[in-house]
Each structure stands twice: as structure tokens, then as C-alpha cells.
Write a structure and sequence with these properties.
homodimer, alpha+beta, BirA Bifunctional Protein, domain 2, Rossmann fold, Translation Initiation Factor IF3, eleven-stranded mixed beta sheet, five-stranded mixed beta sheet, 35% helix
Chain lengths: 478, 478
């Protein structure tokens, strides 16, 4: 029992979110630091969540005609710099390969910070005629952005895992539609599977993707009042097509320049899951992405041990629709095990002791509320389904009401600052000018525009009082 | 129809395997070159095969208690050099990151050529007691080895995709067992799914993995008489555990050094699938790993078009256990489509014309033999299952008999050279000495030991006439 002292968290979520987060990540064995500065190890407990996210989203992609492929990790410098806005945005964070063995390379190679440039080199060869369009390709891969800000597991690491979609369309309209279709698939994933409500909308000119015509974003709200960008879907227009000389022969026998999109979500979302759903006992994993749905903790006494374990196996075999673990370890007490599985966020615990066995029942315990119920074994399958549904809904509802509570409409600069200080999300009229946005960030000690709620010209900019271009969410962010 | 001329292959497999291979890779849209020298793009047609291989093997791994994780792409130089034999083997092929943005890094970072060193850094923290063992972790990732030999898509590229397993065990016996368990899982995958027979056995001291105690290998035989190493399973002994100071507290309350294994298979196997099964019409994908099992080619005439397409949809919907594609394109003739799907290796073609419709039947065509059969639609489901099984078996049987035919037992050096010249696999007694192996390679113009068939000391070495240590397969290799 030597481990017991260090098992639980020794800080409360509301007292110090940052320290709480670090402890959950470490103690629930989600991630570990490595000796590569800013890079982390995704341990099996978090990687299994990522695998579930991949399965769900990959199936959405395939149903909508997207196919997976894999492009090189390396981007030769001459390709990276082809689209001028793009390279400006990414060059400062590029990790460069300069040597192979003892040989200096003729041209240095960027490790992909995103793959538009290497992919469009191929697309220029593959896209010939209208028959080749739309081209809908996705890749799951690792990405490197050598940021110099303070790293935080999942939320900001120099290497991370993601998917990046890159599509080519014959018309602007089709490309616009793809941007929005992907946006709603992302929203579906985040709200209905990760149980995290998101604000969606266009980014400002200042915040859009380097090289895009416009960027649609999904923003989640963290308990410390900061927004987390959960995913983005970009309309690239013809910017890359022109830079990479992509053209196609239309049905009209003339050459046209196609329209493109790109979009991505990453392991960063795991950080949001931890922050949004976790509590003072540790992680809470939404059932729909939980690698283990329920853990059976048999209460073992010498006399009834074999019977109990046999029954536990029997129960597990009956619950075929779920991933069930039996914690058979004898070197830990039931109480210790309860705490450990709570820390690791498994949605349900099934306790099975000698008295339960007599009554043909188990005790079912919800991770999110702590609620305990005795359930007859023959009714367990149905009850588990219902309870997992309830947990999934409860997590989303709680997060949604927290988000709604924190959005405040503000009409003057003083209220804006007050809202930011109170860790809320002010929604305000804004002129859309980069200079004004810079000033807002500076004077509010870090608030940035998150996404545009609506185009409304009926008001005046919260900061400069000029005519507003839209109503928009601001907040500090990760 | 402009494409027609360039669609098919213009070289026969037996006339020029290398050129045939290049054409299949390009024309079946499996891979494409990129401007990163030695790196390639896995296009959707090959990536989908890789996804199927991943699904099959990942499920085998999970059933046997292995879990997936993800470790950093980068290995700081001081870690890479910790195990002395290991670094000797890999350093010449390492791609080095030296700069981030405009900043020179303090220590250069290797891009993983394999991950023993970065993983063992974590294991040294995670392994504390016998309770933590066995530790059975796998990762699916990209790997970079900057080889200077001539690259060939799938078979030799500077970046490739693979899985690498890294396990830690309390005893030598358990680690030995893991090495062999993985070897048989690999053999199962290759023979029963990829339909490629493999020779399995230990590598010589010269050919074993850098840092291993011994290496078990799986070797396939290509039509040009060269062997292709399909996978390896390494017993690392305590070499890395000692270098990385991994130890655990045993049940006996004493510290012990654990035993380790590592093992991998890669996208290289796709190259073997192409080479082993393909024919003069292109690729042939074994049904069990085929992304598309059958393609329905409707024979469209203006009069009956709608009816035919409706029936095609109906048939597709009935064949739910299979991935079925309907080729509805009107800008290509049926004949053109037949050739294209043959080139792409889809195991079955289903032809549906007006006369078939009248008779409630289709024409089912096997990709491997070209055999055509009219099949009543109501019997199609069953017939497809049977035919796919037959194709799967036929591909394996053909490859197996080709392999068996080419293994020749030789007893003297003259016959050995004759066998190598005739593109066969000589099996011979061998002393096991590195110097002798070097000499064999030199004098035979490139033949290397592939794997040990058996330990037999009853004979004399084929080359030096000293007492043999074992009987072993030799051949040229990729």
C-alpha cells in the first residue's frame, strides 16, 4: 500500500486549475514528459482515447467520401516558401533537418508544421481534369511546431498528433460547402462524443490561418476562463492552387484554377476533455470515447474469492457491447482500487461483494455524480446502457450551462475589461481592424478574438467606436 | 478515351520485374514520388491496404494484452548513443534536426530510426515493481532512416510507416516467449492475410539488430530471386535495461534487471504484395486485405441505363459483408473500366448488362485467374464468399509452391554459386563466422544469410569447410 499516499490528487480543481491539470495528467498516467524539450509521451491511457476519437471521426470522413493517404514528413525549403503568407506564419516555428549521418544536406528540410505545401506539390500532378474532382484526402500524422511558449501536455506541445484534410474542388461554392460540412462534423464530434460544447464562427483576418481566405473555428471554454481552439476548417480559395500551378480541364474544355480547403483537429482535444470534465477525484471520460466503460471491482474475501471472481467473469462476458475490465489484483484494497479507477476517469464502477452475490446483484457507481445503485444482474445490461447515456448527457449539459453562464454581452470598454477580469467571454461589437484587435489584446492583458458570432453592422466597435463589422467573442486563450 | 493508351502496363512482369514494379506502383496509383529525395507519397489505394493490415494486426496485439502509445519523434543525441552497439548500427543513417526557426539547438535531435532509446528513457521511470510487468507497449508511427542506397517505393524509402513493439519482462523465459509469440503472429498475418509464405528463423550474429541478443526474422521470396525481410522480432536481453538503468523490485523484495524485446513490421510489406501476387495486368490484392472486394461494372445502354443502375445499387446493398464499388462513370467504356480495375487489383468484377438483368444474373470475374461465371443474383452473396476464399487460397498456394521450388539444398561452393546465379535460395551448412559471411557475400556478388533453418553441426561450412554451426538460407536481398 506504499503507493496510496501519492495516488490521489492533493489539490482541488477550483483552487489551482493548472496544478490540478498537471497532477491529473501525471497520476492518471495520461502523458509523461520526455527529455525532448516541449515534447511528451502519450501513455496508453490517453492514446486509447485518441484511438476512439480517430475511429469516430475517420468513419465520418469515409462516409462522406474522404480517403486517407500519407505524405512525407519533410518539406524541402523551396516548397515551404511557395505561398508567401503561409511561410510567414509558419517559418518561425519550423524544425529544420540539415544533416543525414555525417553529410550536410544540399537543401534543408522542414519537418511539417502542416502539409499544404508538400501535398499541393502532388495535387499539381494528380489534378488534370474535372473527372479528378473533388479530390478529398485526409491524413493522420504527427506535426511539429517549435513554439517557444511554455509547453503544457496536450494543450501546447512541440510535436502533436492530428488529422489534416486537404481537398480540391471545381467551384468556390463546393469548397465553401466543404468548409462548412467539416465544421459541422467537428461540432458533432466535440459536442456529441467528447461532450464539449463549442462556439463556432469565422476567425478575424488577424487570427485566420496563414494562407487562407477565411478560417472557421471551434472554440471551447475552459474552467479558468480561457478559450481553447479545438479545431479549424479553412477556405484556401485559389491561393495555394495559384502558387503550386494546379489547374484542371473543365467540361467546357478550358483550363480552370480549382478551389481548396484544409482542416484539422488534434490530440489537443484530450486536454479539453481533462479540463472540462475532470473533478477533484481526477479524470472523467465521456462514455462514448471511454476506452473502458466499466470496471468490476470484486470484493475479495478468502472464503468467497473464487465464487466472486467466477461471477465477475460471467458478468463481463454478458456485457459484450461494452469494454469491461475486472480488477483482480489482490495486493490492493477495494478502496484503493475505487480511488484509482476514479482518478483514471472510468465512467462506471461495478462493485461485487459476497452479499451482492447472495442477492444476485451488484452495486453500480457513477463516476460523474458518485450515485450508487444496487442493480439485479439480469437487468445490468440495460441499466448500464441507460446510465452511460445519462453520464454522457450530464457531462455535456453541465459544460453547456457553464459556457452559457459565462458569455456576457458587453457594450462598453469598461464592461469588456470587467468581463475578461472575471474570466468570462465578452461578446461585443468589433470593427474588425487588425490594429484595433492588437490594442484590445494589449490593454486587456491578453484577450484575443475567438470567433465571429454574426455579421452585424448596427453597432459601434467596443474599443475604437468606429462602425462595427460584426459581433464577436473575445477571451484569453490557450 | 485519351487516357487509354497509357492506362495499361507496357512491360511484362517476367521480362523486366523492376520496370514492371515501377509501372504498377505508378499506374495503379499506389505511390508517388515527392521532391524529398527518397521519400514517397502513399496514395489512397495503398494507404487503404495499410489500414487493413493495421486493423488486423492491431486486433491481434490487443487480444494478447498489448497497448498502444506514442513516443516523441525526436531522440536527443545523448540518449541515442547510450547503447553502444545500437548507435553504431543506426548513426550513419540518422537525419539530424539542428535548428528551430532561426535558433540553433543546444543539442541536436535525431529523428527516430527506431525508438528503443527514447522509449527506454520512459520505461526507466515507469518500471518500479513486479506489478508493472510485463509492460507490453506498441506504437504505430513514421520512421526515418536516411539510407544512401537506391530508393524503391515501399521497399526502400527514407521515411516509412511501421509498428514497433517494446516490451519489458521479469524473466528471460518470458521475453523469449514474447519474441516467439510475436513471430507467429507476424507469420499468421503474412501467410493467412497477405497470402505471402515466409521463411522464419534466427539471424546470424552479423545480421542481427544492433543492440539485440538475437533477432528472429521473416523472409519472403520475390520473383527476381531476392529475399525481402518482412519483419523482425528481437530479444534485447538486458542490454538496453542496463544502459538505461531499468530495474524492478521483485516479489522477493530485491532489485532485478528486466528482459526486453522489440519487434516491427512496416509498409514495406505492401511492396511484397505487389511483387509476389501481381501479373501482367497489374496488381492483385489478396481478398482479406482488399479495400474493395468487388467492383460492379454496369454495361450501360441508353435504353436500359436506369434499370441497370438501380439493380446495381440493389446488389450492392445486399452484399453488406463486402466492400463493393459501383463504377457508374459514363465517360469510360466497360472495357476501359475492366482494365482499370484489373490494374488496381480488385479481387472480383461483377458485370451487369441488359441480358444479365433479364436472366436475373451477373457475370462474376476472378482477378487472379480471369475465370468468368454467370451467377444468379440470389446466389451471389454465397458465391462471392466462396470465390474470395478461393482467390485467397490460390494466391498463397501459388506463392508457396514458387518458394518451395526455389529452395535448393547445396553441399559445395560451386553449387551454391550456381543456385545464386539461377536466382534460387541455396540452403547450406555454415560456420556462422562473420568473416566467412563477408567472404560469401563478396564472392557470390551479394548473397547474404537470410535466416537459420536449424542448428545442425553434422556438416561442414559451404565456404570455409570448418565445422558448421547451422543450416541456413542464403540469397540476394532487397
Amino acid at each position: 500500500m506504499a503507493k496510496k499516499q501519492t495516488l490521489g490528487l492533493n489539490v482541488k480543481k477550483n483552487d489551482n486549475l493548472s496544478e490540478w491539470y498537471t497532477q491529473v495528467v501525471q497520476k492518471a498516467e495520461l502523458a509523461d514528459y520526455s527529455s525532448v524539450s516541449g515534447c511528451m509521451v502519450l501513455r496508453p491511457n490517453s492514446y486509447a482515447i485518441w484511438e476512439n476519437i480517430q475511429k469516430i471521426f475517420d468513419s465520418m470522413l469515409k462516409k462522406t467520401g474522404h480517403k486517407n493517404a500519407y505524405f512525407p514528413l519533410f518539406i524541402p525549403e523551396h516548397l515551404l516558401i511557395k505561398e508567401k503568407e503561409h511561410v510567414k506564419g509558419f517559418a518561425p516555428e519550423v524544425a529544420w533537418v540539415t544533416h543525414a549521418g555525417n553529410t550536410k544536406m544540399k537543401e534543408r528540410l522542414a519537418i511539417r508544421p502542416t502539409s499544404e505545401t508538400i501535398i499541393n506539390e502532388s495535387y499539381a500532378k494528380w489534378v488534370r481534369s474535372w473527372r479528378d474532382l473533388p479530390l478529398l484526402i485526409n491524413q493522420w500524422c504527427n506535426i511539429v511546431r517549435w513554439e517557444f511558449k511554455y509547453p503544457k501536455p496536450f494543450l501546447r506541445t512541440r510535436e502533436f498528433l492530428w488529422q489534416e484534410g486537404h481537398t480540391v474542388h471545381a467551384t468556390e461554392k463546393e469548397a465553401d460547402k466543404e468548409v462548412m460540412d467539416i465544421l459541422s462534423m467537428y461540432k458533432d464530434l466535440m459536442e456529441n462524443y467528447l461532450a464539449i460544447p463549442v462556439l463556432t464562427g469565422k476567425k478575424t483576418e488577424k487570427e485566420k490561418f496563414a494562407g487562407a481566405v477565411y478560417t472557421m473555428a471551434l472554440e471551447a471554454f475552459m474552467p479558468d476562463g480561457k478559450a481553447l481552439q479545438m479545431g479549424t476548417s479553412h477556405m484556401l480559395g485559389q491561393n495555394f492552387a495559384k502558387a503550386f500551378k494546379i489547374k484542371f480541364l473543365g467540361k467546357d474544355e478550358k483550363y480552370h484554377i480549382p478551389w481548396q480547403t484544409s482542416w484539422g483537429i488534434s490530440t489537443r482535444m484530450i486536454g479539453a476533455i481533462i479540463m472540462v470534465h475532470g473533478d477533484d477525484n481526477g479524470l472523467i471520460i465521456p462514455p462514448k470515447i471511454a476506452p473502458i466503460h466499466a470496471v468490476i471491482v470484486p470484493i475479495l474475501f478468502d472464503k468467497s474469492k473464487e465464487k466472486i471472481l467466477k461471477k465477475a467473469e460471467e458478468i463481463k462476458n454478458k456485457l459484450k457491447d461494452y469494454n469491461i475490465e475486472i480488477d483482480k489484483r489482490e495486493e490492493y484494497s477495494p478502496g484503493w482500487k475505487f480511488h484509482e479507477w476514479e482518478l483514471k476517469g472510468v465512467p462506471l464502477r461495478i462493485e461485487l461483494g459476497p452479499r451482492d452475490l447472495e442477492k444476485n446483484q451488484v452495486v453500480l457507481v457513477r463516476r460523474d455524480t458518485g450515485e450508487k445503485n444496487s442493480v439485479k444482474i439480469k437487468k445490468l445490461n440495460k441499466k448500464i446502457k441507460q446510465t452511460l447515456d445519462k453520464i454522457q448527457k450530464n457531462l455535456f449539459t453541465k459544460a453547456k450551462s457553464f459556457l452559457n453562464k459565462n458569455i456576457v454581452e458587453v457594450n462598453n470598454w469598461k464592461d469588456f475589461l470587467k468581463a475578461i477580469k472575471a474570466k468570462k467571454i465578452p461578446k461585443a461589437f468589433f470593427c474588425g481592424e487588425k490594429e484595433c484587435e492588437d490594442l484590445i489584446k494589449f490593454e486587456s492583458d491578453g484577450a484575443t478574438s475567438r470567433c465571429i458570432e454574426s455579421n452585424k453592422e448596427a453597432g459601434k466597435c467596443i474599443k475604437c467606436n468606429k462602425k462595427a463589422k460584426y459581433k464577436i467573442y473575445f477571451s484569453k486563450s490557450y
